[in-house]
Design brief:
The chain is about 50% helix and about 10% strand. The chain has about 600 residues and is an alpha/beta fold. The strands form four sheets. The protein has a four-stranded antiparallel β-sheet with strand order 1-2-4-3. Strand 1 and strand 2 form a beta hairpin. The longest helix is centred in the C-terminal third of the chain and has 25 residues. The protein is globular.
Length: about 600
């Protein structure tokens, strides 16, 4: 289905052409003076120089061919050559009625769907999720959902940090605490226990302890480094322990991501590409890309156009060990082999941009990916508290994600119970739903690259540009529809009619922009565009609601048209909130 703005523009472009001017000047935009008109075209001013005519003359020529337009109720020429345009009511309602009755509200099916891999999440095993993991999870999930809705084949990969020194530190500390475990006996040839020798709680205590000890005890650090090397070289007992660490951690991570309604198609980690590294290094050496520098193996990635010095990409450290650059490069090889993607998108803290510039350039220079494969870095800013600093616990530690979410949920529960309209158990479940919306909408309504302040009081408010306000609007519509059905009405075979007020027309025009919003949100990887659409549509609905008698409308046909509009609006808002990763409760 053609985008609404394109349909309107075609009318004006046709008129320019009929008047003897280039179609290119017929571009229509939303009016920047809504008090004067709904849309405008400034093409006559741009064409004046080419045609050596006053813009007012060009505008008048074009206006003559719009007199009988199917789209416009008013075409007004204003000095020095603006075309002010208003739309016919039935034109707007007809477009929205078709969109609401079509698949995905008029979003066209993609002729050539892309295969896109999205790398987001990035947690380390043996560590609980904290507030720093929130943004990559919900931004990446939303971008994935938008891309899928747009018709593409999308694969989300959590990309676990499951290889390297942290594993060696845990193994070392386990040996100190539980030396009799068979994993440490190199002569042991039997089957290792199926049950892990630790719980997730123990694991989460062991890792920070061992990590801290490494920073002040050189002998302990040396043992951890040795354990890491033995793990990576295939020591049987250490590999078995590592699998326990991975299984226990992943099971816990899945539970926490499930609470966020964040889901991954792949649960791969750095360890999955360990076997690809030797051949990758060999290739880089043989083709003359990699060379030794201060004991490390590196590849130059600087370019003549660089304004700043760009360090070489380190492939192997001076001790011969792999690093993040190594595993990220090998992961590109893996993704190319397994998925042949059109694009690989990385949703990572924007402070990691230099790392990904090095990795992307190195991958292209050394031929690890096709020239046509898009490598995209989406760097997100920091979510801070009202004091402008990152969220911390009272003792200064990093705040666990589950505690942060509980704080928001408790806040919502208190607000719900103030009205005492819901039973306690339903109030708790509803509080969880609204809290998730508050967190996700509060984050996604900002451009990903920007830092922002998470103001708990503002983001949990039922007024303003917030998740709870959006859900309250949707629940209001659900309530009206439920009452209509209870009174004997049916939600089947309804059709949106010609608007009877400016408020109704405004709502229809907001809804008409859905397919354009989806296209822009996908192309720009921009969930905040979905948020803007939801907020504008919710505002338009509430204005219509406050000025219109819906259920008490005496004319049954008019009432049916109102109900059709409400149902279409709710369905559209529901599709949008699903793209952001939350839903509306039945009651609030």
């Amino acid at each position: 289905m053609n985008k609404f703005i394109d349909v309107i523009s075609k009318e004006v472009k046709d008129a320019f052409e009929k008047a003897g001017y280039s179609r290119d000047y017929g571009k229509v935009t939303i009016s920047n003076r809504p008090d004067l008109c709904e849309y405008q075209c400034n093409g006559a001013l741009a064409g004046a120089k080419e045609y050596h005519k006053p813009p007012i003359q060009i505008a008048n020529d074009v206006a003559g061919f719009l007199a009988d337009s199917a789209a416009f109720s008013k075409v007004e020429v204003v000095n020095p050559g603006f075309l002010n345009l208003n739309l016919k009511d039935e034109f707007v309602s007809s477009y929205v009625a078709e969109a609401v009755s079509s698949d995905k509200f008029g979003v066209d099916k993609v002729d050539n769907p892309e295969t896109i891999v999205i790398d987001y999440g990035g947690p380390n095993v043996a560590k609980p999720l904290h507030v720093g993991h929130l943004r990559p999870a919900i931004i990446g999930e939303s971008i994935k959902r938008i891309a899928k809705y747009a018709g593409h084949n999308v694969i989300g990969d959590v990309h676990l940090g499951d290889w390297g020194l942290p594993m060696g530190q845990i193994i070392t500390e386990l040996q100190v605490r539980k030396p009799d475990l068979p994993y440490f006996d190199e002569s042991y040839t039997g089957e290792y226990p199926e049950e892990p020798p630790f719980t997730i709680s123990e694991l989460e205590e062991i890792y920070p302890y061992a990590s801290g000890l490494c920073k002040k005890d050189e002998e302990y650090k040396a043992k951890a480094l040795a354990a890491t090397a033995q793990l990576q070289s295939g020591r049987r007992g250490y590999r078995a322990l590592w699998k326990h660490i991975l299984n226990v951690s992943v099971n816990d991570l899945k539970k926490n991501y499930e609470k966020l309604d964040v889901h991954f198609e792949l649960w791969k980690g750095e360890s999955d590409v360990d076997g690809l590294i030797p051949d990758m290094v060999k290739k880089m050496k043989e083709e003359g890309h990699a060379y030794m520098s201060d004991g490390a193996l590196v590849v130059d990635v600087k370019e003549e156009t660089d304004k700043k010095e760009l360090p070489p990409c380190i492939i192997l450290k001076s001790d011969g060990a792999a690093n993040y650059e190594t595993t990220d490069l090998a992961t590109i090889i893996q993704r190319e082999k397994e998925f042949n993607p059109n694009s690989i998108i990385y949703v990572v803290d924007k402070r990691q941009e230099l790392h990904f510039v090095q990795v992307f350039r190195c991958a292209r220079k050394t031929g690890l990916c096709k020239e046509s494969t898009g490598l995209e870095f989406i760097g997100f800013g920091t979510m801070n508290g009202k004091d402008g600093h990152a969220f911390k616990t009272r003792d200064g530690g990093v705040l666990r994600l589950e505690y942060f979410l509980k704080e928001i949920s408790d806040k919502m529960y208190e607000k719900i119970m103030e009205n005492k309209q819901l039973p306690e158990e339903e109030a708790k479940q509803t509080a969880d739903i609204i809290a998730l919306a508050a967190v996700k909408y509060g984050d996604l309504s900002n451009q990903a690259s920007k830092d922002y302040i998470f103001d708990i009081d503002r983001f949990t408010s039922f007024e303003g540009d917030t998740g709870p306000y959006i859900l309250y609007t949707m629940v209001r519509i659900k309530s009206i529809l439920a009452k209509y059905v209870e009174a004997g009405g049916s939600l089947d075979d309804l059709k949106i009619g010609t608007p009877r007020s400016g408020y109704e027309k405004t709502l229809l025009m907001k809804m008409a922009g859905f397919n354009q919003m989806i296209e822009e949100a996908f192309k720009e990887r921009a969930p905040h565009k979905v948020c803007s659409f939801i907020y504008d549509t919710a505002n338009a609905f509430n204005s219509f609601y406050h000025e219109t008698k819906i259920l008490s409308e005496a004319d049954e046909e008019v009432k049916k048209q109102y109900i059709a509009l409400l149902k279409g609006c709710l369905d559209m808002l529901t599709a949008c909130t699903d793209l952001l990763g939350f839903k509306a409760p039945e009651r609030m």
